[in-house]
Amino acid sequence: xxxxxxxxxxxxxxxxxxxxxxxxxxxxxxxxxxxxxGLWVHEDEWEAKHPQLRPxxxxxxxxxHHARPDSDDATVRVSGLRFNGVQFQAFVGDVTVTVS
Length: 100
Known about the structure:
Strand content: 25-35%
Order of helices and strands: EEEEEEE
Shape: elongated
Helix content: under 10%
Mean pLDDT: 78
Number of helices: 0
Structural class: mainly beta
Radius of gyration: 37 Å
Distance between the termini: 103 Å
Largest sheet: 3 strands, antiparallel
């Protein structure tokens, strides 16, 4: 059975030269690497993308998880406030707090 050879799509680049996008020097084509910004540079000049250029997606929540609507019938009253005797009363709707 005869062996079928595949044709190459591209040349091997063994003797090819290219221009480094950063330095402008003529370098071997095989020594080029593509950077994150699209530049083709020599492998000695290649730099990885800095981590600060990859922003993390921050969630900025605008609503509360268990939000409750405002109630017009809620009564808020604070009375009997004394500093030295530490007497304090507060009324919020049906809740009563008394500290003495």
